[in-house]
Amino acid sequence: MAFNFQDYHNELLFVPLGGANEIGMNLNLYHYQGKWLMVDFGIGFADEAWTPGVDVIVPNVEFLREIKDDILGLILTHAHEDHLGAAPYLWSELDFPVYATPFTSAFLKTKLASENIKPGKRTVIKEVQLGATLQLGPFTVELIGLTHSIPEMQALAISTASGTVMHTGDWKFDEAPVVGNASDQDRLAEYGKQGVLAMVCDSTNVFVPGRAGSEDTVRTNLIARIKECEGRVFVSTFASNVARLQTLIEAAEATDRKIVLAGRSLWRVTEAAREAGYLKGIEFLPETAAADIPRDKLMIICTGCQGEPLAALSKISRGDHQTLRFVPSDTVIFSARMIPGNEKRISHVQNQIVRNGITLVTPRRDDIHVSGHPARDELAEMYAHVKPHIAVPVHGEARHLQEHAQFARSLGVPHAVEPYNGAVIRLAQDGAQVVGMVESGYVAIDGNCLLDIDSPVLRMRRRMQEAGVVTIVLAVNKHYELVAEPSITAPGSLDEEGDADLFESLREEIEITMEALPNAITAEKVKHAVRTTVRRVFKREVGKKPILFVEVLKIA
After folding, report:
1. Which of 52, 122, 330, 492 is the most buried (most CB within 10 A)?
2. CATH 3.30.450.90 is held by the domain 12-210+371-452
3. pLDDT tens digit string along 380-414?
């Protein structure tokens, strides 16, 4: 039975559809008096084992389709892909306004333009200023500036007649940010004095002691490291990390280097940043300009810090980039952390770089990368400011959320709940309870198509990945007697040269099966009999169950 939200008409409900089982892919909903407020709409990295051939996944929006007439708007806390990246893929599902600050708005518009997507009559992007207050039905929303690795990160103080929720988004307390202002801790404390019902808070670094570190430290260390480099310097970082891009601009200026950008997403981000007034006073050069600049005067900023196969750094490391090639005097700097789940492909790219004889530099704590998320001391400071009645940890895996809830209780927060995607959570003075469930899950972005995570296509790919495919073609006469030797191909299952004996054994077993068939037979019965035989042989000889295709061709 579908959950009846009218039973909770005058109570505040929180419903995460993404970001409450994983780091990334954030999609949060608030319900009050029959109306909905949506916060963020992000993508996540795909799991190669579960979604082979897929790089990006997005939240399942089936529940959004049910309620979209009552959604008052989508507010984007900032411009990171895991908070807005799903919007272009699912733009047709957004039949309501999208609210964003100048930089976030500009970034979203460049993404939409790159996909030739235009806002509709109701799906419009409404630009709001930093620190603005919005009145959306029963929700009053104040934007509060926090520091992060991208400009204009805005926490949301969401107020209703039943209480206020502080939705932090991604944040840290950096007293010396390279881009933008320091966090407005005074405003956070003012809300704490007024009384905050619940805080929905970032859990990424809940296991990390101390503080996240300052971008100012990264700038100092990168300048020192790059000064030591004699040849070209390749730096890979998140394209959306505008603070790091500004740091790299200053590092290039300090070391008398020109900057080449390699990767389309870097150009989109820098275009949006300049439109919003950031990254001024620097000329970014295209990849084709690299050949004309002395090697000791060049920095190349690349996409691909997470080992994405089609990103610039991956192509360069493989030697198949159109214009850029490594030479032994080059240095490659990874100025980003590994996102959990990407370790294997990042290591693969880094190993390729080393095999090319290139100097590889990776982060150590607080040297050439700092996180944009709060460590434990900053979390404690945030709770001291806001003083929520309920802690609602998000932006983390189950282990992060559990640790965050326990940490909040140790800080004196009366109540804590560990959310999960699809949970309907009631927020009230007597605490927080999961009172129901709605449909949630994931959708894979497969080229230009959307695939359910458990679609037949992906199920088939998983089976192919595990055991390969065997295709058997039988040429028969009108009596279904073989007129030629069975044709067998087995990509991903057998090697035609190394497993020649097994191929011959399969052919013999198929011929024996065909000879034993009764006179009154059909093509389907032939296929069934041959499949049974081939499965038996594979189980006995290989111990696997490949996908089987049997084709029967009648020869007149």
Report:
1. 330
2. no
3. 999 999 999 999 999 999 999 999 999 999 999 99
